[in-house]
Amino acid sequence: MEYRKLGGTGLRVSVIGFGASPLGNEFGPADENEGQRAVHTAVREGINFFDVSPYYGRTLAETRLGKALAGRRDQVILATKCGRYGKTVEECDYSADSITRSLEESLRRLQTDHVDLLQVHDVEMVADPKQIVQQTIPALRKLQKAGKARFIGITGLPLKLLNWIASQAPVDTILSFCRYNLMVDDLDELLTPLCRKQNIGLINASPLHMRVLTEKGAPDWHPAAPQVLQAGRQVAAACREAEADVALVALRYCLDHPYASTTLVGMSKQAHVEQNLRALEYRNDPALLQKIAQIVAPVKNQLWTQGRQSNNDPDWTAPQ
Ligand code: NAD
Known about the structure:
eight-stranded parallel β-barrel, binds nicotinamide-adenine-dinucleotide, alpha/beta
């Protein structure tokens, strides 16, 4: 395993991180024993960064991850989140009281007395972004002082909002998803420079574009436009023709990012853990990458919006 420093935290995280949302059945029913084997294999092979949220499977992913990590807690860097609890903005709560309660419940489910990283989940769900700066992040810092979280961070889809929050209230890490992979790469334009400047740990999630870049293809809830999903199928076909595994090509592409500390890939199966570990030795063929770039070009950087419309990049204006 290869490890990189996580911004200025002093933590060294494995370049492949374990995304636990599939343990909460977010991509379809996941077998609990198989999920445990996936977690145990990952720890044994040196994956030390685990990311979860009370939102994933509406607490199921945390409960399952807590059970799977029992006896192994000290071998991992454990990250969870707070603030998002459902699909709609009404089901989210970024108030200080709620955040504090939320972490206590997460700690019980995760069978631990502290997490290594506590993140505000999907900041674009908030009604007023100033609340994150003035109330939520100070509440997280208080929990940090109390020893319940070693470091704090923010997560979300819109990069301009993440950028604005981090420039108003210092954070230790930022988790961005679906903004740097074979389909989308505007992360480096909108967020990486700030992370480098402020020594913020950058966590890049969803290297497979939430299963678009796999043989199985996207789940039916996937928010991307049909032409994006179609391009994903063409990418998979091009990889097949070149006798390469599309997931491996996609994961390796993300591991080659020069600044991101870790790439979080969602896993609930031992076979996927084993396959993804092969990415460490794997090297992408430049000719295949060029072919993929041609296929993706017409839909490159085509995204969807999430949460409050005004928090998304196309509509964003910084609050005064
Ligand atoms: P992903 O791109 O990692 O895709 C995960 C899907 O691909 C799952 O269905 C998984 O079973 C499948 N898969 C994994 N390895 C495979 C392989 N080798 N071959 C075939 N299929 C494979 O998307 P994701 O899970 O959404 O993102 C990764 C993690 O990042 C999440 O689990 C979560 O921890 C984190 N994340 C956080 C946020 C946020 O905080 N807002 C958003 C998205 C993701």
